[in-house]
Hints:
Elements: H1 2-26, H2 31-34, H3 39-48, H4 52-57, E1 74-76, E2 87-91, H5 115-120, H6 124-140, E3 145-147, H7 170-186, E4 190-196, E5 209-211, H8 214-221, H9 223-230, E6 236-239, E7 243-244, E8 247-248, H10 253-263, E9 269-271, H11 280-286, H12 303-312, H13 318-334, H14 352-365, E10 367-371, E11 385-390, H15 413-420, E12 426-430, E13 449-455, H16 470-482, E14 486-491, E15 506-509, H17 517-525, E16 560-562, H18 571-576, E17 594-603, E18 609-619, E19 625-635, E20 646-655, E21 660-668, E22 674-676, E23 681-683, E24 688-696, E25 699-707
Parallel strand pairs: 2-3, 3-4, 4-6, 5-7, 5-16, 6-9, 11-12, 11-13, 13-14, 14-15
Antiparallel strand pairs: 1-2, 7-8, 10-15, 17-18, 18-21, 19-20, 19-24, 22-23, 24-25
Helix pairs in contact: 1-3, 3-13, 6-7, 6-14, 7-9, 14-17, 15-17
Amino acid sequence: MKKTNFLWAPIICIISVVVFAISCRENIISKQNYTTLEKSLYIDSLISSMSLEEKVSMVHGVKGTDPNGLDYVGYLPGIERLGIPPLRMQNGPSGAGATFSSHRHLAPATAFPVPAAQASTWNMPLLYQIGKVLGLETKAQERDVVLAPGVNIIRIPEGGRNFEYFSEDPHLSARCGVSIINGAQGIGTMTSVKHFVANNQDDSRFTIDEQISERALREIYLPAFEASVKEAKVSTIMAAYNKINGVYCSENPKLLTDIAKEEWGFEGFIMTDWGTRHQTVTAANAGLDVEMSGWGKFGTAQFRDHLVNAVETGEVQETTLDQMVFRILSEMYRFGLLIDNKNFEKGVMDAPEHRKLAFQVAVEGIVLLKNDDNVLPLDTSMTKSIALFGDAMEARVSGSGSSNVVPFYSVSPYEGISNYLTNNTEVVYYNKANMSLGTADTRIDPDDVAIVFLYRSSTEGSDRTSISLAEESTLIEKVANKYSKTIVVLRTSGSYTMPWLDKVDAVFQAWFPGQEEGNAQAALLFGDENPSGKLPVTFGKERRDFPASEESDFPGIDDKVNYSEGVYVGYRWFEKNNTVPLFAFGHGLSYTSFSYEDLSFSPMSSDDKVMKVSYTIKNTGVRDGAEVAQLYIEDVTASVDRPQKELKGFAKVFLKAGESERVEHSISRRDLSFWDETTSSWKAEKGAFIVAIGASSNDIRLKKSFIY
């Protein structure tokens, strides 16, 4: 009897598969029953039930309008007769409200500070919560995919989308991206990490050919994408517009298949950016799964118009198309769009906790760059009046382009400060029309304060032409000559020259701070909140301090740009050239002070981890506050040219006055490695390494060496 059962088991299984496949073709099995069957079997049965035309319809996006008259940024149409719903997409990453850059098409959403400000918090649990809200508000708008995060490296200070990315450093960018993805996908919303890879400039972004070494790609531009795939299991990857070494990213087999799918084990689907240029056969065979272009202003469709013929002529194998469809359906299954038993959280818009989170991110993301003589926080009992200059009457919520968000409300600096002050302190705004400052040598009462708010827009689609603030510099100098206390608040996407820096008392880098801008700025100015933001990029004194200062390196010549700096981006470049920055990577001041002490090592014996590092941070001031401690690795005896040091860990520690905490990090072999171009692999050489712990890249407090 046992032998008989053994022989019949595979026969019964085969019969069950056949019956199931037939049932799927007839569309007669309820979705509830699908969950009892193997995922791949179910998806294979759906694909086998599709015509060639239906398969192709699954791999190119179309335009649509929801019941409220708002356009989708794009969606995959689905197949109703097989129970496959459309897959609907929503822009990010500053908030789940964008469809196109025109406000006419925007649904309101919680407007968070832009990603550069998010990274300035160095607070990964906070970014996880941002991701969660992006996911919840995407679901509330009946969308399935939020097109975020953007993890491209900030290579040049002029980059039009710098505000939309996290950092110049691959480690910090990776940690931020993983946190956002885990937050959104944890509540059931797919994410799309973008733009794969090296979308570092917007000038000529559709055609630019970037000449990048394999080592620079591996060490600088790919790690954040790799972490998004390996650690966060990101659902989709969005290919960039540009070429890499002569090949468009959307039809680059080395990037799409060799690295992402085979080396990293990416199981989701790869889509184009909107309007990406690619050829049907080349892109499909290279590993592109979805075309999100081909309507309206976004160019001519390739998959939609030519993929059926390419399969019929054998230029693209139907098995390749089947794999493209399988990847899409697999992610839809994973996120509960093909089955009914996924217990994901329901979406919600404009919740009180979302507003509170936007405030907290702004507070922690605004960076105090300078605070001479502790002029901040302001003492309202000692301040008779506050004069506001510049761009103080409008909230500068976000940058422009596809990440633009229209909030449910916004708070300008003037509103935030005026609402905060309930005593007799007078708030006066001086615009250009009534800005009568008098003679430069006539000073205002010493108890009066001037705050100058500077704003420079930044947008997807074009890079800035300079990093000069010439017009604003004149205003600042006039104000500083008149007032004994002058504070500058910068609402920009990044580094600008500051020839007036020595003339002012305090400077905040506020980025584009989201809907709670004014409230957050008031809380910091008057000391209700203690600044804890730190720069995720280096600020230089002049443009020539940065890499890519030659035309061939940026913006390029004849649609070709050389990444001649190699791995030396950001602080790596400044240190290699012994250039003193205006403000260093990782810099940010507080209203309290911190000490670092007792650095110790403890060897680890796991396959990957090699060393545990620990040290103590103490709040030595009189105010509660938070410190971002940064761990850098120096390779003392490398056989190749390596950066002086590289960020490999960080911790944000919240401490009450007088309180201390022991901080721990683990160092992996990968942290010690460089990309060896001779063997095409990561290599950690035996020899001496130094662990450097600091408050910024040029403020190292503790150092200790070890032999690997």
